[in-house]
Specification:
about 500 residues, alpha+beta, two-stranded antiparallel ribbon, binds adenosine monophosphate, binds magnesium ion
């Protein structure tokens, strides 16, 4: 099969006027090597996975060959990084090869190479990525997807054969990232800051057409666009909270309008439940702590609203009112999505205040008892009804302390009030409370083994396991266990 039929590009972003991007070809690398192809994702995108794994395919994934009909570009954006305004960012180490339309769901997806060389937006950077962050992003983005959380995806990972210079020399890698689009809040901020309202409008129209076509029929399409983005972000952050995910670098340039999680830099899943948890080594003030994520998303959205102001109404006063109303809606949308997701983890509806209180009491207890977030919910799922079949579960190595007994009794009573069939509820709970998550110490082990020993077997084992995070296997017990004290990873790094 030739490159043309293997990658059915159908590009739209590169058809926009040139102020939105720079034409930029990937820079070649010395010696591309395949790490992994995501066959299931390739199929969903109508891409031939066998071709991707061929020499020609790997050359493309490494940036050494351009497929037919690719129109490689680096896009421009700005953003607030840790609250500080940066008027000039952009794809400094990522190149958008083009878009494909999925024959399975009809949606359009970006195919982007991350770590493919310098672009006009590289500033002081080298446009490259060490292997570690490539593996981390592959593992976590695919795990998020399997957990049912909107996320960019990973189509492939390759080694480059070249070293990159960081605090030491590290082997380089390139990730092929797939997203419904990479348009960020910062993409709008870039043009709004330059008072280029025409470009803000062009971009808004593009996003409406690509992601929110229903808004075309609304009285005020741009208001509907803003409301839709706010609603997707509220849903997204609620889902993060429900699995203990901490993004770590929620800058406005790392928030996509399509509502997918993006940029798995200094991110991590919490082990012990503590709402103040921060992992990122660069987040010294705890700005992006677990407990702050909803507030930070709202802050970011206020910059999107601000950027859209000239489009929202004829005069500024009216526009501010429209924007403020939309932003005020975030808190309620988030609260509702959060309570729904958390109560669902416990087999209860979020409607009854008593259920929401019960859930809060559990979180307070977990925090006081320093309980592992994931295992606590999985243990509850396994122990809603007495296990007569003795099927193996995490309860074989993890028990909640007796301090939880009164709470568990109350919980069982409450769930029984709502559902006659507790076994059915239990089956649901086992399908939404994961046994396996990409625990930070496991990800670090994978990275260490690949970087130092060129051994990718741990990487493949972890990716394979996390495809089905709800299926417990006793022989994989160690993957479900929290880190031993000496394995705890306190910090994660951007690794840029
Ligand atoms: P991030 O923290 O990954 O969201 O990146 C923030 C900005 O820095 C973006 O504009 C990136 O493209 C840019 N950047 C990060 N790492 C590099 C690198 N190694 N080379 C060039 N630009 C980079
Ligand atoms: Mg970024």
């Amino acid at each position: 099969m030739n490159a043309k039929s293997a990658l059915p590009f159908n590009n739209s972003f590169s058809q926009l006027p040139e102020q939105f991007f720079s034409h930029q070809r990937p820079s070649p690398v010395s010696s591309p090597g395949l790490i992994r192809i995501n066959t299931a994702l390739a199929q969903q995108l109508g891409i031939d996975a066998e071709w991707l794994a061929s020499e020609e395919g790997i050359d493309m994934l490494a940036g050494n060959a351009l497929p037919e009909h690719a129109s490689p570009i680096a896009t421009v954006y700005a953003g607030h990084q840790f609250g500080n305004w940066n008027p000039q960012l952009g794809d400094g180490r990522a190149i958008l090869l083009g878009e494909v339309c999925s024959p399975v769901n009809g949606l359009r997806y970006d195919i982007q190479l991350k770590g493919a060389g310098e672009t006009p937006y590289s500033r002081m950077g080298d446009g490259r990525s060490p292997l570690g962050p490539v593996l981390r992003e592959y593992i976590v983005s695919e795990a998020m997807t399997s957990l049912g959380i909107p996320s960019t995806r990973s189509l492939a990972a390759v080694t480059t054969g070249d070293n990159v210079v960081r605090d030491r020399l590290l082997p380089g890698g390139i990730l092929t990232r797939v997203a419904q689009s990479h348009i960020r809040i910062g993409s709008f901020q870039y043009f709004a800051a330059r008072q280029d309202t025409a470009s803000v409008q062009t971009l808004a129209d593009y996003v409406i057409n690509r992601h929110f076509p229903d808004a075309l029929h609304a009285d005020n399409s741009y208001q509907t666009l803003l409301e839709n983005v706010i609603s997707r972000q509220a849903q997204l952050i609620a889902l993060w909270q429900s699995v203990g995910f901490i993004h770590g670098v929620m800058n406005t340039d790392n928030m996509l309008l399509c509502g997918e999680t993006v940029d798995y830099g200094p991110c991590a899943f919490m082990d012990t439940f503590n709402p103040e948890t921060v992992f990122s080594s660069i987040d010294r003030g705890g700005r992006y702590a677990y407990a702050n994520q909803a507030a930070m998303a709202q802050w970011n959205l206020s910059w999107l609203a601000q950027s859209l102001l000239p489009l929202l109404a004829e005069n500024e006063k009216q526009a501010v009112e429209v924007a403020q109303n939309a932003l005020d809606g975030f808190a309620e949308l988030y609260q509702q999505a959060y309570e729904t997701a958390m109560c669902k983890k416990l087999g209860m509806s979020a409607e009854a205040p008593v259920n929401r209180m019960l859930k809060q009491n559990l979180l307070d207890l977990m925090s006081k008892e320093q309980c592992d977030f994931t295992l606590c919910f999985r243990f509850l799922a396994e122990n809603l009804v007495p296990d007569e079949t003795h099927s193996p579960g995490i309860s074989e190595f993890f028990q909640l302390p007796s301090a939880f007994n009164p709470w568990m009794e109350q919980w069982r009573r409450q769930v029984s009030k709502e559902s006659a069939n507790l076994s059915a509820v239990q089956a649901d709970l086992l399908a939404i409370n994961p046994a396996f998550i990409p625990r930070n110490h496991l990800v670090e082990e994978v990275i260490e083994s690949a970087t130092t020993h060129n051994d990718f077997s741990l990487f493949h084992a972890l990716v394979d396991l996390l495809e089905k995070p709800f299926d417990y296997h006793p022989e994989r017990r160690s993957y479900a266990q929290p880190p031993r004290p000496e394995q705890v990873v306190e910090n994660t790094f951007c690794g840029t």
